């Protein structure tokens, strides 16, 4: 899932996720495939970003129901939000985490349209 990004972790000096004080903090996950290529559609990018979040949760023994705070960043939010929301509804069920949706002029690569960062509560 993260092979195409291992070099970025070192180059830019960050971890994909960090456990601290009862929480798992997940760095922004973009909608790229494992090989690093980005799908054209916002829906597919959203699906990949959420799959990346889910995989980090799985590695920590958690799942999407453990999310407590999520922030998503959207390029061209006025036109991309409907596609994003349709996919989000398939992955995120009630009770919902807190969620901030932020429009931005761009992400780390011009073809990327969605990035998701999240915080999950660790289980006792």
From TrEMBL:
A GO term from the CC aspect: cytosol
An example molecular function term from Gene Ontology annotations: deaminase activity
Protein name from the UniProt record: Enamine deaminase RidA, house cleaning of reactive enamine intermediates, YjgF/YER057c/UK114 family
Signal peptide residue numbers: none
Organism taxonomic ancestry: Bacteria, Pseudomonadati, Pseudomonadota, Alphaproteobacteria, Rhodobacterales
UniProt-listed InterPro entries: RutC-like_sf (IPR035959), YjgF/YER057c/UK114 (IPR006175), YjgH-like (IPR038743)
Organism annotation: Alloyangia mangrovi
